[in-house]
Design goal:
Strand content: 15-25%
Number of domains: 1
Largest sheet: 7 strands, mixed
Radius of gyration: 18 Å
Strand order of the largest sheet: 3-2-1-4-5-7-6
Number of strands: 7
Shape: globular
Oligomer: single chain
CATH topology: Rossmann fold
Structural class: alpha/beta
Amino acid sequence: MSHDAIHQQVSQRYTEAVTSGGGCCSKSSITPATSTGEHPEIQSFGCGNPVAHAGIQAGETVLDLGSGAGLDLLLASERVGIEGRVIGVDMTDAMLATARANLDLAGATNVELRKGLIERLPVDDGEVDRVLSNCVLNLSPDKSAVFGELHRVLKPGGSFTVSDLVADGLPDIVRASSDAWCSCVGGAISEEAYIAGLRSAGLVDVVVEDRFDYDPETALALAKEEKLIQGIPEAVVAAALASTVRVASIRVSGRKPA
């Protein structure tokens, strides 16, 4: 699939998810529960809670990559306070509209929404103190561009905290599936490649702070749900998953050199 095709299909899937009240992943849901206990009325499409671990301070400027329905934006806005600022970037009109409605309902006046791609952020060089993202970078077809943009928009000494899915050993049939991409799996890269990509972009102190590994049964359930194994004996797929495929949700942090 071309980059444009991936963007289009992901945007369509998330439009359907936010307008129907469903999720972005399959019914088997490979992403763990992400409820913060705060603002349960806002739909979450993430795989973690990066805001809780980002060390956000009052008065800072925070950027959320792929800001979705606005949950992390609202949580961050409460932490930066009235003297701070939060910027949310999303490529999907329905997500932006939903986020604006949620933010208006909560009375959040320190949040700005911008439409754009995370590979080409509508954000100035060195504009933000912190970057957040919650299960979005795996959806990008050009992760090196995202890592480079993350470095570009951070102020010197600024930090990032990202929750995301990583995967190793995925068969080509999964990589080529639009359903798998939209379900946060097909585009997931290995943890090693993820860390290397961030470091290659010039970011430092890159550390995986938390990891949740999925067992082969969960991975198999997802493959069946997304119909990625049609015509292949289930026992063969299960054996392959047990021996070669690794899927995990991680929280990774780091900073731009001062």
